[in-house]
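The step that takes the researchers longest sounds almost clerical: writing a folded protein down as plain text. Below is the pair of lines this work produces for a single protein:

——
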Amino acid sequence: MNQTPDLAIERLMSADVGPMRELLAVFADAFDEHETYLGAVPESAYLGRLLAKPHFIALVARRGGAVIGGAVAYELEKFEQQRSEVYIYDLAVALPHRRQGVATALIEAVRRIAKEQGAYVVIIQADSGDTPAVTLYGKLGVREDVHHFDIPV
């Protein structure tokens, strides 16, 4: 997808369960949420089916073949107009590789995919205390202050 001499961005497909598992480990470390990302990793068949779905976008960033970051996004079909938006659910870069353009390259790759799939916007969230993310996303898009609520089921 995106290649520079030292950085490659790849979209994962149904056969790419191994790299998806590597990405889960990057998320676990980056967010310090090991139980969430590694405590109940789905079976390979589940991950393969998920990766095969066109509305599910999983990207990895590689340096020297190693997964050093990634993004997971969902295309959401809208009801009020015949269009869709892409929501970046998770984006992380391993600590030694931060502030080197990896996150920006991942967002740009999601943007290209969103355009190819006919989406009109890409949405991403950042916690208010996550200054590096807020600064980066502010350079790429328009900031909206919203409230997020988790409603138990």
